[in-house]
Structure to design on (287 residues):
C-alpha cells in the first residue's frame, strides 16, 4: 500500500515538475510530503493522484466545492510565494489539502487560518487537518476575513472572487501580498489569478495566469453570481493575456481619470483599473 501510494504520488509530482508547473524546491517538497489521498478518502488511490478536480462529498448544488486539480494547486502555491514563518489567511477551506500544503511551506513558526462559509465543509476539513498544529479551520464568510488572526503576510483565496472585499486589504500586513482569482468578465467560472500589495489606500499588482475556479459564496459574491450584473455581462475586458495585465484596485467611489490604454471595472467594493503591460497595446471591448 505504502509503495503504491508513493509511486502514484511521485508520478503526479514528477509530471508537474517536468511541465514546469512546479518550479521551486519548496513547493515540490511540500507536494511530495502531503498525502492527497488523506484529503480525498472517498476516491480511489488512482483518482486521488490523478491530475483532476473532484467534487467533495459535502458539496451541494447550491454550494459546489472540489478538491482542486493538482496543476492548479501547484501553480497557485508558486504564486503565493510562501516562506517559513509567514502568517497566512486562506479563503475557501475545501478538502483541507491546500491548507496542509501551505502549513508545510510556512513551517512550525508560521500559521495558516482557513475560512469556509459552509459548516459541513469545515466539519469535514477539521479532522483531516488535525495533524497540523499550525492550522486553524474557521466557519465564517471569507469576505470578512478573520480579524482575530490579523495582520497576515499572505491573504490567498482558493475560490473565485467577484469583488475585492475591504476586509482583505484591512487585514493584510503592510508588506504582505493578496493573491486570489478575480472574475473580470466572461463566463462565471473564468478568473484571473492576481497578486496585489498595498500602496497607501490602493492595491497594486499584476495578473499571473488565467484559470477556472469554483465561485466564492457569501455576502460579497451574491450580487455578481446570483444574477446578471451590468458591469460583468455588458462590457468585457479582452485582448490581453492574464500575465500581461497590470492591476490597480481603488476603494469604491474613488475618482480616476482613465488613460487611453486602461479599462475600468466597477465592483460594489472596489474600482479595478486594468492596463496592458506593454504601452502599445489596447483593450478591446465586446459583448
Amino acid at each position: 500500500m505504502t509503495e503504491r501510494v508513493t509511486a502514484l504520488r511521485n508520478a503526479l509530482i514528477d509530471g508537474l515538475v517536468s511541465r514546469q508547473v512546479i518550479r521551486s524546491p519548496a513547493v515540490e517538497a511540500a507536494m511530495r510530503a502531503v498525502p492527497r489521498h488523506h484529503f480525498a478518502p472517498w476516491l480511489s488511490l488512482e483518482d486521488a493522484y490523478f491530475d483532476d478536480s473532484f467534487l467533495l462529498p459535502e458539496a451541494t448544488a447550491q454550494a459546489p466545492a472540489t478538491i482542486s486539480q493538482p496543476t492548479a494547486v501547484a501553480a497557485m502555491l508558486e504564486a503565493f510565494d510562501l516562506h517559513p514563518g509567514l502568517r497566512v489567511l486562506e479563503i475557501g477551506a475545501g478538502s483541507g489539502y491546500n491548507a496542509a500544503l501551505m502549513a508545510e511551506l510556512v513551517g512550525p513558526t508560521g500559521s495558516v487560518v482557513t475560512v469556509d462559509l459552509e459548516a459541513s465543509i469545515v466539519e469535514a476539513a477539521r479532522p483531516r487537518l488535525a495533524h497540523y498544529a499550525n492550522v486553524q479551520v474557521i466557519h465564517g464568510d471569507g469576505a470578512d476575513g478573520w480579524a482575530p488572526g490579523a495582520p497576515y503576510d499572505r491573504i490567498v483565496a482558493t475560490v473565485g472572487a467577484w469583488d475585492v472585499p475591504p476586509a482583505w486589504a484591512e487585514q493584510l500586513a503592510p508588506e504582505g501580498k493578496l493573491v486570489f482569482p478575480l472574475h473580470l468578465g466572461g463566463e462565471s467560472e473564468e478568473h484571473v489569478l492576481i497578486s496585489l500589495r498595498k500602496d497607501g489606500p490602493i492595491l497594486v499588482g499584476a495578473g499571473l495566469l488565467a484559470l477556472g475556479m469554483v465561485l466564492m459564496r457569501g455576502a460579497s459574491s451574491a450580487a455578481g453570481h446570483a444574477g446578471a450584473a451590468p458591469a460583468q455581462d455588458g462590457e468585457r475586458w479582452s485582448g490581453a493575456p492574464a500575465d500581461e495585465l497590470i492591476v490597480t484596485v481603488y476603494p469604491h467611489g474613488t475618482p480616476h481619470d482613465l488613460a487611453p490604454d486602461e479599462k475600468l471595472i466597477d465592483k460594489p467594493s472596489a474600482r479595478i483599473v486594468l492596463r496592458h503591460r506593454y504601452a502599445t497595446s489596447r483593450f478591446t471591448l465586446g459583448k
DSSP finds nine helices and 14 strands in the chain.
